[in-house]
């Protein structure tokens, strides 16, 4: 039986997570960050069994989780300035249980062999509540060393593995299909022979996923897009939601991401508009992005600037969203621990939000209208 992660019970004020006007002190903010990080790592562990062993996909995911655990351990050490030793010890115990869960999961998903080798995929547990591991007294702490070793190993694995693409098991390359010139300005790749959606390396294209892609929602990724419109909402309206979604290196684009049952990771997006329905949203290194959002937990931003948030447009609401709490405006900025609201994000005013007519009539595209013209009509780039 897997160990149960016992998350620390944080002392202090009540955690009703009020509206944005209430300021959390650094201790509360770190507590929120810790809970969110543990949940994401547990979600990633739950997906290991569905990943392929051939090609190193599963091992790369294991190494990514190991790096995440080491990073979280490192962050507990960095929080020593505003967390007492008792709290850090509780965090350390939660990390220890997380490590045990990961070891059990690795043992289950690793194919058995006649020959047994000692695994190097392990992060040693460190009690961050102990004086000898307090980074203020001992900057060369063990956790810092472990983190560097895991990161170095992760880089080596990533350099060896081939890049992920949208090729199906039958060998069809949907990105090549999207790139192929045709008379229509709108591309509708079916993804009929794929289990997941991976759209990458496009510029100046309008891409709409048809209902045929409804079964390809095991995962989704949108990477390296410039001046594009991508609408992924149709397959998830009646079909299954994406299990998870990654959006990375996107500029001057409009992304309608559809429904996501798990986490959405957004990294390196600039001068764009995103429409997202998800349980968790984490946003890193983004600038000048408007996000129309329905989120079941606090959205998290880190190393971001010029972010504006608005609720999900009525046009994309389903019955599930209408009956669920939306925490779109309860944003946590992990790079702003000072008193007062974060200067890195704001609420998009009602007068500046795109109306239903835009989502219904302009975003789907019209004959004879270029992608550049459509982007201009929705306000990309931002004036």
Automatic annotation (TrEMBL):
<dbReference type="GO" id="GO:0007021">
    <property type="term" value="P:tubulin complex assembly"/>
</dbReference>
<dbReference type="InterPro" id="IPR038397">
    <property type="entry name" value="TBCC_N_sf"/>
</dbReference>
<feature type="domain" description="C-CAP/cofactor C-like">
    <location>
        <begin position="210"/>
        <end position="336"/>
    </location>
</feature>
<comment type="subunit">
    <text>Supercomplex made of cofactors A to E. Cofactors A and D function by capturing and stabilizing tubulin in a quasi-native conformation. Cofactor E binds to the cofactor D-tubulin complex; interaction with cofactor C then causes the release of tubulin polypeptides that are committed to the native state.</text>
</comment>
<dbReference type="InterPro" id="IPR017901">
    <property type="entry name" value="C-CAP_CF_C-like"/>
</dbReference>
<dbReference type="GO" id="GO:0015631">
    <property type="term" value="F:tubulin binding"/>
</dbReference>
<keyword id="KW-0143">Chaperone</keyword>
<dbReference type="GO" id="GO:0007023">
    <property type="term" value="P:post-chaperonin tubulin folding pathway"/>
</dbReference>
<dbReference type="GO" id="GO:0005737">
    <property type="term" value="C:cytoplasm"/>
</dbReference>
<dbReference type="Pfam" id="PF16752">
    <property type="entry name" value="TBCC_N"/>
</dbReference>
<protein>
    <submittedName>
        <fullName>Tubulin binding cofactor C-domain-containing protein</fullName>
    </submittedName>
</protein>
<keyword id="KW-0007">Acetylation</keyword>
<dbReference type="Pfam" id="PF07986">
    <property type="entry name" value="TBCC"/>
</dbReference>
<dbReference type="InterPro" id="IPR006599">
    <property type="entry name" value="CARP_motif"/>
</dbReference>
<dbReference type="InterPro" id="IPR016098">
    <property type="entry name" value="CAP/MinC_C"/>
</dbReference>
<dbReference type="InterPro" id="IPR027684">
    <property type="entry name" value="TBCC"/>
</dbReference>
<dbReference type="InterPro" id="IPR012945">
    <property type="entry name" value="Tubulin-bd_cofactor_C_dom"/>
</dbReference>
<keyword id="KW-0963">Cytoplasm</keyword>
<dbReference type="InterPro" id="IPR031925">
    <property type="entry name" value="TBCC_N"/>
</dbReference>
<comment type="similarity">
    <text>Belongs to the TBCC family.</text>
</comment>
